[in-house]
Amino acid sequence: DKKEPDAKIAKTEEETPDKEEEEKSTKAPAGSSKSGWKNWKKTKESDSGGEESKITYCHWLLKSEPESRLEKGVDVKFSIDDLKAQPNQTTFWDGVRNYQARNFLRAMKLGQQAFFYHSNCKEPGIVGIVKIVKEAYPDHTQFDQKDPHYDSSSRKENPKWSMVDVQFVRMTKRFIPLSEIKAHHLAHKADGGPLKNMMLFTRQRLSIQPLTQEEFDFVLSLEEEKPH
């Protein structure tokens, strides 16, 4: 039984990287200080006959587009209100076509929380919190020729792309704009605060981003403050 093919998760997806990017995708971004990545736990896991370093994070940031935009004739808009309108306020997070973002999806664990981030819009920022309710499994849109994220090079016996299921948890107490998070990031770069290496600013184009416990807690604390 086929899931609805259109009006699904919007992506602010970067251009699909080449093989070199795929190989680099499990490493920390160049230039990162050790402290920013101290929560990485690396374990070796056999993957398709080869060993790949798996990195586990506690929290995530998921970007989606709240405004209509056609991609190959399909509207890829998906706001947090669209998520709330889904049955059981749950949906699959499909359409990710970047190897590093895919690897982050595959590292997600049941029950972990993520910020829902509105991107590619007039004022981007964090609007709510979701949780992972199903760990990574093959993204069916890669095999659907009518889907804007169809990938003719992916094979059902060895799918390239994965997705997870997410469920709405709550709205943040207020909208936390990118501009405000960036101001803290710049201040923390100077004084060594928790947002100094936040991937939202070091790898801006990634639609799936990991957060350390310190980053998540600090950003969440902003919802209690009056907007500047």
Automatic annotation (TrEMBL):
SUPFAM superfamilies: PUA domain-like. InterPro entries: 5hmC_binding, EVE_domain, PUA-like_sf, THYN1-like_EVE. Residues 1-51 are annotated as: Disordered. The keyword Nucleus applies. Residues 1-14, 42-51 have a biased composition (Basic and acidic residues). One of its GO terms (cellular component) is nucleus. Residues 59-221 form the EVE domain. It is found in: Nucleus. It comes from the Eukaryota. Keywords: Nucleus, Phosphoprotein. Specifically binds 5-hydroxymethylcytosine (5hmC), suggesting that it acts as a specific reader of 5hmC. This is Thymocyte nuclear protein 1. It comes from Mycteria americana (Wood stork). The lineage of its organism: Eukaryota, Metazoa, Chordata, Craniata, Vertebrata.
